């Protein structure tokens, strides 16, 4: 922006951003005395866009994803003759982000450095850091970290060309980008040493680890690289080495902490979610408790089933090692209490664990998971698309703060109408997935 001619600055600037870039553009505009419009997705946490407004920029909330916000920003830039300031795919931006690499090398003061872990969205941050560090310290590994449901860089590197994702997970909203930049991909293909993928549970565990270590609360995208470093070091047995992690943001909405708290223990492998079948007869509950033994039960859900001879118990246990959990499962199996580990099943953790006792057989029921944008009218838009065409047989809402709400929906749809339903769902524009093939659906709901 400092390089722009005066007449361009007078026409103003515009950018699209999920957070940090927005603050940089707003601050630069304030320093340079020009007008700035910042376009952010509707799902952007309030803490982010409020901080941009405080810097004097005009914030416009458009679309449910970064890519929709970017499309609006580029259109408005042409219409109003504003200069579009790219968030990552520009040499000047990449060079600016590369100064972080310079700071890291300077602060290490000649000490050996094994690796730098960098969160990846569009790729500007990791491209800049890699460009500098690989020039001055080529032995240092530069490793990107992406959420497993927003892995555009990992896929692009694997295929040797930029890949656009059909959909991206919004939990780590700061890196929720469908396609990486052209210039950033060129540099990453040449310079970085690999990408680590982590899931939502691991990110939550790292948020908790940072809080307990430093009393700092990171946002999901900010904890992303920390989760990747922890997974990498554990997998390769890295000990006694210096590693650096880029913690890229602390824009955590308070209401999202509830979800982080619930998933953190699972991510740290300190809690497991299980289901056990036991006979519907006196004494079976006591027998079950004896088999759990020294393990601490942290959650327990059971409902008497008069139509079956066997009951299903859904519960969580605290654990310290994987060995302890396996030993408990063996005790259960030896007592003829069939036990299933559901810890890694997101459908269970987000929804089904809250719906125990509601098991029934519903004709033509199709189970779907949707992500609703957190804004007024989202529910009515959904209902307008499907009701009264099809009957809704189940509905469970799971808020995630302002990044979007996980919603589990049961809809009665004859097989002959599935194509019509999927066309309607695609046109709705919300992220969704059919879950009937998930085996725990039959286990817990039928």
Structure explained in plain terms:
- The protein has 446 residues and is an alpha/beta fold.
- It has 17 helices and 16 strands.
- The strands form 4 sheets. A 4-stranded parallel β-sheet has the order 3-2-1-4, with helices on both faces.
- Helix 2 (20-32) runs parallel beside helix 3 (46-54), helix 5 packs across helix 6 (124-136) and helix 9 crosses helix 11.
- The longest helix has 18 residues, at 91-108.
- The N and C termini lie far apart (60 Å).
- The mean pLDDT is 85.
Structure in a nutshell:
The protein has 17 helices and 16 strands. It is of the alpha/beta class and 446 residues long. Helix 9 crosses helix 10.
Largest sheet report:
4 strands, parallel
Could you list the spans in which at least 5 consecutive residues all have pLDDT below 50? Answer: none
Number of strands: 16
State the secondary-structure class: alpha/beta
Number of helices: 17
Strand order of the largest sheet: 3-2-1-4
- In whole angstroms, how far apart are the ends? 60 Å
Q: What is Rg?
A: 25 Å
**Average residue-wise pLDDT:** 85
Report the sheet-strand fraction: 15-25%
* Percent range of helical residues: 40-55%
- Please tell me what the overall shape is: globular
